[in-house]
Amino acid sequence: MDARIILADDHQLFIDGITSILSKVSGISLIGEASNGLELIELLKKGLKPDIIITDIRMPVVDGLTATRIISKDFPEIPILALSMYDQSADVLEMLEAGAKGYVTKDVEKNELLIAIDTLLRGQYYFSKNLPEEISDWFKKGRHIETKTLTKRETEILELIAKGRSTLEIANSLKISKFTIDTHRKNIHKKLGIKSNTGLVNYAVKNIGLKI
Q1: Poorest-confidence range of 40-44, 98-102, 143-147, 194-198?
Q2: Which CATH entry fits the domain spanning 152-207: 1.10.10.10, 1.25.40.10, 3.40.50.880, 1.20.1300.10?
Q3: Contact present, 51 and 81 (Cβ < 8 Å)
Q4: Engineered SS bond to 134: which of 69, 89, 148, 151, CB 3.0-4.6 Å?
Q5: Residue 171's closest CA among 11, 21, 62?
Q6: Sign of the CA dihedral 57, 62, 68, 71?
Q7: Domain spanning 3-140 has what CATH number?
Q8: Using 50, 70 and 90 to split pLDDT, how confident is the model at 211?
Q9: DSSP-assigned states of every residue in 168-190
Q10: Which helix (H) or strand (E) holds 39?
Q11: Going along 65-211, which residue ranges are E strands?
Q12: Residue 140 has pLDDT above 60, yes or no
C-alpha cells in the first residue's frame, strides 16, 4: 500500500502515536501535520498533495467538520478519514454528510486503521463496525439522512445564541474561530428548520430546558 498522508489532531501525543504506527508500514509516508482545521486547509493550499487525510473532529480554531466541508468542496479528489473518540451517530453522520469517506474511533486496532486507509484509497467508504446502526441506514437510503439531532458543540452554541451572545463572544468563549461559529449557526438553522434567532430561543427554552 502506497499512501502519502496528512494527519490533523490537536493532541501532539496522539499525532506522535499514529506517526509511529504508520512509519513502520511500507509505502506509507506522513507528509504533513496540523493541529487544527485551518492549518490543515493551509497545508493543501500551499501545495501539499496527500493521497488521504486523517482528521479529528474536535479541534480549535477550525474544527474537523468545518475543514472537511471545505476540503471536500475545494479538493474533492482527496479522501478524508475521520479518526475520533466520539461515536455518537450525529457526529458520524455529520462528518459523512460533510464529505468524509470513512470514520473510525480512536480505540481502533492498528490492522483496522490500515484496512480503513486502504479502503478509502480504493475509492470506497469505511466505518468502524462498532458505530451505530444509523450509519448502515445512511448507505441504504442513498447516503443521505436528514437528522435534527444537534451535536454537543451545536447545543453549546445554541444555548449561547439563545442567551443573546454575539458571534464574536461565542467564538471567544469556546476558543474557536468566528468562521466556525457561523458554520455551526447555519447548520443549526438548517437542522431545526428555524430561520430566526427568536425561533432558536423558543426552541432552546422548549426543547433543551434553557432558562433565560
Answers
A1: 143-147
A2: 1.10.10.10
A3: no
A4: 89
A5: 62
A6: negative
A7: 3.40.50.2300
A8: low
A9: HHHHHHHTB-HHHHHHHHHHHHH
A10: helix 37-45
A11: 80-84, 102-105, 126-127
A12: no
- Cell 468545518 sits at which residue? 66
Per the listing, cell 459523512 goes with 96
Strand partners, 54: 7, 81
pLDDT of residue 145: 45
Phi and psi torsions of 36, nearest 5°: -160, 170
- The pTM score is 0.70
Please list, in sequence order, all residues whose beta carbon lies within 8 angstroms of the beta carbon of residue 149, skipping any fewer than 6 positions away.
Answer: 89, 90, 191
Grid cell at residue 204: 432552546
139/44 Cα distance (integer angstroms): 29
Cα→Cα distances 97→19, 107, 131, 142, Å: 27, 23, 16, 11
